[in-house]
Amino acid sequence: MLANAPVPPSTRSRRIAAIALGIAAIGASAVPDVGIALALRVALGLAGLLAVVWAVFARRPAVQPSGTYVQADEAGLTRVTEDGTKSIVKWDAPFGVALLASYGRPTAVLAFTTPTQTRYVPARIDDRSEADDELLARIAVLADLDLVDDVVHEAALTAAATASLVRRLEDHDKDALGRVYLSDGKGMPIALDRATLAVGDRSFDLSSQLEWRPLMFHESTGQALALYQATWIKQGGSEVVLVAPMPSSLVPRGSNAHRDATGRLGRALTRDLRLLQAPAENPPSRDVRVAIDRPFMMAVRRVLDDAPLAARVLADPRTESSAPKAERRGTLP
Fold first, then answer.
1. Which of 190, 212, 177, 154 is nearest to 96 (CA)?
2. Which of 42, 98, 180, 311 could form a cystine bridge with 192, CB 3.0-4.6 A?
């Protein structure tokens, strides 16, 4: 739920009034000097006691959440607002979920991706339990501050509600955690999970040997010079370079940023800083470039870094084939 559901004001007012009247009636029945018959005193005391008991213990009416909230039913997840409803995911269709988070920020973004759309839901992560921290760390990805800060003033799921929602998603499809569905600017589908990266008609088996490396490059766009981040991937005869604009800022300038990145989730974000590091190179050939959404570049690198037989190379093998290939996770022939 994105907004708590308060008890309706009219119900709350009636309960407060009942308590006040009940206390007054009990008090009046207990005052010895008031000229009230004993039978009336007993009646006042009982009436006052019943009023207080009703106000405290009576069942509160079920109410719909106020504002904006996420609703889960047999069909899937829906975001409900005053303007209507929007489907987030459907249980009978493929979907993925990732947590886009940043250092020292109490609010992150749950990103729900499907082959046709991406939906974002703000989620608080500052008051999570140890079990919730371990769960959310599995899908957490370091995101740029602009994305996270844009949702600071929106209603957000509590940390407990966020973890509960992720567990419900896992119950429906355990492989959805960390899975990503994207498309490039021309609508070409991109799908990423723990076993496969599919880019259009090219498919990379993450359980087999492959090479990859991060890089960045500058390129002129009219009279401006833009900075891009990229991830080069090659397996057999398939080669692709995933490209996205470089984020303006990933780590808050405050000295307590790393201190605030606590728990497993914080360590996952710290690990992503290493994956962010990349040498500057010449722009890659446009024939192998594929544009992806900027927030998901780190998700791609995280999965590649976890692939058991993937080898991360630190230099372009086409220009520096004799250079040592560091940070190997497997042995290439």
1. 177
2. 180
Q: What are phi and psi of 118, to 5 degrees?
A: -130, 130
| CB distance 21 to 51 below 8 Å | yes
Q: SS3 of 95, please? A: coil
Phi, psi at 314, each rounded to 5°: -100, -5
pLDDT per residue rounded down to tens, the chain (333 residues): 444 333 344 455 666 666 667 676 666 666 665 566 666 666 666 776 776 666 666 655 444 444 677 888 888 888 887 778 888 999 999 999 999 998 778 889 999 999 999 999 999 888 889 999 999 999 999 988 878 777 766 678 889 999 999 999 999 899 999 999 999 988 999 999 999 999 999 999 999 999 999 999 998 877 778 899 999 999 999 999 999 998 877 665 554 545 456 789 988 888 888 888 899 999 999 999 999 999 899 999 999 999 999 999 877 766 654 444 445 444 333
Cβ atoms within 10 A of the Cβ of 174, count?
A: 8
